[in-house]
Design goal:
- By secondary structure, this protein is mainly α.
- It has one domain: Up-down Bundle (Growth Hormone, Chain: A), CATH 1.20.1250.
- It is 81% helix and 0% strand.
- The chain has 17 helices and no strands.
- The radius of gyration is 20 Å and the shape is globular.
- The N and C termini lie far apart (40 Å).
- It comes from Nocardioides islandensis.
- It is a multi-pass membrane protein.
- InterPro entries: MFS, MFS_dom, MFS_trans_sf, MFS_Transporters, Sugar_transporter_CS.
- Keywords: Cell membrane, Membrane, Transmembrane, Transmembrane helix, Transport.
Length: 387
């Protein structure tokens, strides 16, 4: 559902709706990020209160009108409204699949489970970005590229309703068998969970800020990379390939990085991944050829793969099972606020200084985030211990 927008929507903003301001053109990412971030928080709370499956099915129901709105939209604000619905849908569905997989696996395989979950999502995003880019190159920006989204919504709703089973009982069982510790008590209120995950607990809060910066990068890539590549003279076909390459490597890489974090630990993989992302962004800002951009996109995908499932696994390591779903919701609140912050910050910077200068600035911010993890975060994996 998200992949259908990656190649087409930035070009729709400029070519169809005539938006000449980067800040205005990126409003759909801002709307998506805000809606998804706050729905993530609610998804964690609701999945503990009502169960995982009802929240998942509700998320797919919200997704159904999105591709039709994108096809029909006579005004840019309809596109923005469709992305509010998409953000709500993503917050409910993706948060719940993360929580369900954490329910189903023990601590020794938590990284692997997160790698599988995130890999499935981002490989689908990459394939769809490539497909819709090819469709747009041959049939135009609307309506054909968004027809695949209608099929995805039907499949997601059908599978979630008919095939998925409730997993909350697994978390309840784990909570009943896990002894309460002084560091992570089992009886936290919603406010205490938010404070612990956001600010107080070193590993949880370090993961939250790194997640925000990681998705800030993704908001930048989503909104500005297609415009940069087209402005440099690339056609829609190569642009779609570049746009798909980054999430494809991201998706495939998570199959390995999630499992490696179970073996090597979380902290150093997160630190290294943030620094690799910073270097890749700097390379995209500094170069202007298809080959150089392709190599940098591969590096950006690899760095993101090192970070993405590992951050989620670290939340699962630290949070007590009785409030783990809420902690995942708070973490994903901060992480997906990165889309909104990225859209707003990079749009303002690009309007004021240019696209390349905006990318340089975000590269520096990403490097700083990685160094903060290196200084503040401790190792969370049970077999590695605190380091």
């Amino acid at each position: 559902m998200l992949g259908q927008e990656r190649t087409v929507l930035p070009l729709l903003a400029t070519d169809v709706f005539g938006l000449d301001s980067y800040t205005a053109a990126l409003t759909y990412i801002l709307a998506f990020g805000l809606a998804k971030a706050f729905t993530n928080y609610l998804a964690g709370t609701w999945s503990e209160r009502y169960g995982r499956k009802p929240v998942l099915v509700a998320g797919w129901l919200v997704a159904v009108p999105v591709p039709m709105l994108l096809i029909w939209a006579p005004d840019w604000w309809i596109v923005v409204g469709a992305n509010v619905l998409l953000g709500i849908s993503q917050g409910l569905t993706w948060s719940t699949t993360v929580i369900m997989k954490i329910d189903l696996v023990g601590p020794s395989r938590r990284g692997l489970a997160m790698g599988l979950n995130e890999s499935a999502g981002y490989l689908a995003l990459a394939v769809t970005a490539l497909i819709t880019g090819e469709i747009a190159a041959n049939a135009g920006l609307r309506p054909e590229p968004f027809l695949v989204g209608i099929a995805y919504a039907a499949l997601g709703l059908g599978l979630s309703t008919l095939a998925v089973r409730e997993t909350r009982g697994h978390a309840d069982h784990e909570a009943s068998t896990q002894a309460q510790t002084g560091d992570q008590p089992s009886d936290l209120t919603d406010r205490q969970v938010f404070t612990q995950t956001s600010f107080r607990e070193p590993a949880l809060s370090s993961a939250s800020q790194a997640g925000l910066v990681n998705n800030l990068n993704d908001g930048l890539a989503w909104g500005l990379f297609p415009v940069l590549f087209i402005s440099a003279g690339l056609s829609l076909g190569p642009t779609g390939l570049l746009v798909a390459l980054y999430p494809a490597v991201w998706g495939l890489g998570q199959l390995a990085s999630g499992a490696l974090s179970d073996r090597w630990g979380r902290k150093h993989l997160i630190t290294a991944g943030m620094l690799v992302q910073a270097a890749a962004l700097a390379a995209i800002a500094a170069t202007d050829t298809l080959t150089a951009w392709a190599l940098a996109s591969i590096a950006l995908g690899a760095g993101t793969a090192m970070v993405y499932p590992t951050l989620l696994a670290s939340i699962g390591d630290v949070a007590h099972p009785s409030w783990r779903a809420r902690a995942v919701g708070v973490y994903r609140l901060w992480r997906d606020l990165g889309f909104a912050v990225g859209a707003l910050l990079t749009g303002v910077l690009a309007d004021a200084f240019g696209i390349r200068e905006a990318i340089w600035a975000i590269a520096g911010l990403t490097a700083g985030s990685g160094l903060l993890v290196a200084v503040r975060m401790y190792e969370t994996h049970p077999r590695q211990g605190r380091q």
